[in-house]
Automatic annotation (TrEMBL):
GO terms for biological process: photoreactive repair; response to light stimulus. This is Deoxyribodipyrimidine photo-lyase. Belongs to the DNA photolyase family. The keyword Lyase applies. PANTHER family: CRYPTOCHROME, CRYPTOCHROME CIRCADIAN CLOCK 5 ISOFORM X1.
């Protein structure tokens, strides 16, 4: 009698999730499901890419949300701690996986890991498919006529627009056929425990401000397109109006893709949303890509002045001034409002980010890298490319950056962009009884008014940390004395 052949179960395929914690418009997940093989969905918590601070908490929330979404579809997200370069091949061998899918990364550590991983997996005869979705345009796809990466945003953006519309968005898979395994994989693969991600001290409003799921991200997007896109160009610089999209945390964790945002904006009815508003907003999304292009070509964007003449700038090392800035106690209301908004919620309006960055680097003459680190620790949207590029932009040390001599006056900015002081009153409540005119300059309140409202300058609220005129003169002098300054002009 011939032995009957057992039907062999099809080899499973693996999808690795990394900052793309969503079911919709996820090419890696889509391709894995389309393979017709049973799917394993996994996330590797790797010490080399693990982030702490508010962003660590936010990414943990996003993973939990994806896990819930996969559970609803009858599966789960395997979350496993350890070095991805070791854990993934071990997982693949153990489960007999024949294909691995991921969406491409462009940061130096992620890129290097993926290159190694691909080589290792291919040597095990495992097919690897890496797909593009993180950006509207991959960093190397837009180049100057001479074949070089662009160094000026407007030229890059023109070229980007000539590339045509980004590809269509993919729907969430209707069903996912999950691979069943009963093994304790964490134990078998000697995985490391994943440390719990906690919000740092003081981030008391982050949880309430940032609901975390793919549906929440879509709701933020549709609410913005419906209610605020129509006046984006006029209002985007107004922290008191607070009508920007607030999509940055969702884009950061990949609860939303950039092209989902792009197409939602393009689909807005022209009757209500003018081309100017749509274009102004899409250009901001363009800055996101431009930042990633910079990080791709300048892997040390967060640590090295892209203009080397700034290596000679005599930065001040004044821990007490830095601490006052971090805690929102500089005596300049708009700066303090922004820093307190950041500390409490994990987010700060873009105009105010520019003002506080200019104040730290120019009025306090503190190295921009200190600010970059603090933002990275406290931002819910902390992003290695956008944070580093913007800090170098504000400090004047980057490419296509705001020149050093453009020093924002925090009082002028406050009067212009928060005229009635509504934003300041929200975040610096000790100033709330001051009249609109004085809320930008509380040190000018006269004794009678102070008595009347129970306000003691220097005590109820700090006296200004530095004299703006003097600090500005020192900043300009330090810059003028830089060797090879011409390159910075
Ligand atoms: C010093 C400094 C540090 C910053 N650090 C970060 C960061 O770590 N992560 C981050 O996502 N953004 C960062 N930004 C950029 C910007 O402040 C935020 O993207 C924006 O405030 C997010 O709010 P929003 O989603 O309502 O923006 P919207 O005005 O609605 O813009 C839509 C999207 O466009 C992108 N975008 C907007 N402005 C910029 C910009 N200047 N550079 C790059 N992309 C932009 C973001 O993805 C944003 O979500 C920083 C800006 C400065 C000045």
């Amino acid at each position: 009698m011939t032995a009957q052949k057992q039907p062999t179960s099809p080899a499973p395929v693996l999808v690795l999730f990394r900052d793309d914690f969503r079911l919709t418009d996820n090419p890696a997940l889509h391709a894995a499901c389309a393979s017709g093989q049973p799917v394993v969905c996994a996330y590797v918590h790797d010490p080399a890419t693990y982030k702490q601070g508010v962003i660590g908490w936010w990414l943990a929330q996003a993973r939990a949300a994806l896990h819930d979404a996969l559970t609803e579809k009858g599966g789960h997200l395997l979350q496993i701690g350890g070095d991805a370069v070791d854990i993934v091949p071990a997982l693949v061998k153990h489960l007999g996986i024949k294909s691995v899918f991921w969406n491409r990364r462009y940061d130096p550590v992620g890129k290097a890991q993926d290159t190694t991983l691909k080589t290792t997996l291919e040597s095990l005869h495992v097919d690897v498919q890496s797909l593009a979705v993180r950006l509207l345009h991959e960093p190397w796809t837009i180049r100057t006529g001479a074949g070089q990466p662009y160094r000026v945003f407007t030229a890059w953006w023109r070229a980007a627009q000539n590339m045509g519309e980004p590809g269509r968005c993919l729907p969430a898979p209707q069903t996912i056929e999950f691979h069943n395994y009963s093994d304790n994989l964490e134990k078998l693969l000697k995985a490391q425990a994943i440390p719990p991600a906690r919000l740092p001290d003081g981030a008391t409003a982050a949880e309430q401000d940032w609901p975390c799921s793919e549906e929440d991200a879509q709701e933020f997007l549709h609410d913005f397109v419906e209610n605020n896109l129509a006046h984006y160009a006029d209002e985007r610089n107004r922290p008191d109006k607070d009508t920007t999209s607030r999509l940055s945390p969702y884009l950061r964790a990949g609860l939303l893709s950039a092209r989902q945002v792009w197409h939602a904006v393009r689909a807005a009815p022209q009757k209500t949303v003018s081309a100017e508003n749509a274009q102004t907003f899409l250009a901001e999304l363009g800055w996101r890509d431009f930042a990633w292009m910079q990080l791709f070509y300048e892997p040390d964007l967060a640590t090295r002045n892209l203009r080397p003449e700034f290596d000679h700038l005599p930065w001040h090392h004044a821990p007490d001034l830095l601490e006052a800035w971090k805690m929102g106690r500089t005596g300049y209301p708009l700066v303090d409002a922004g820093m307190r908004q950041l500390y409490t919620t994990g987010w700060m309006h873009n105009r105010v980010r520019m003002v506080v960055a200019s104040f730290l680097t120019k009025h306090l003459l503190t190295d921009w890298r200190e600010g970059e680190r603090w933002f990275h620790d406290r931002l819910v949207d902390a992003d290695p490319a956008q944070n580093a590029m913007n800090w170098q932009w504000c400090a004047g040390t980057g490419i296509d950056a705001s020149p050093w001599f453009r020093i924002f006056n925090p009082v002028g900015q406050s009067e212009k962009f928060d005229p009635s002081g509504a934003y300041i009153r929200t975040w610096v409540p000790e100033l709330r009884l001051l009249p609109d005119k004085l809320i930008h300059t509380p040190w000018k309140a006269d004794a009678a008014l102070c008595r009347q409202i129970g306000f003691t300058p220097g005590k109820s609220y700090p006296a200004p940390l530095v004299d703006l005129k003097q600090a500005r003169a020192i900043a300009l002098e330090s810059w003028k004395n830089l060797p090879d300054r011409k390159q910075a002009d």
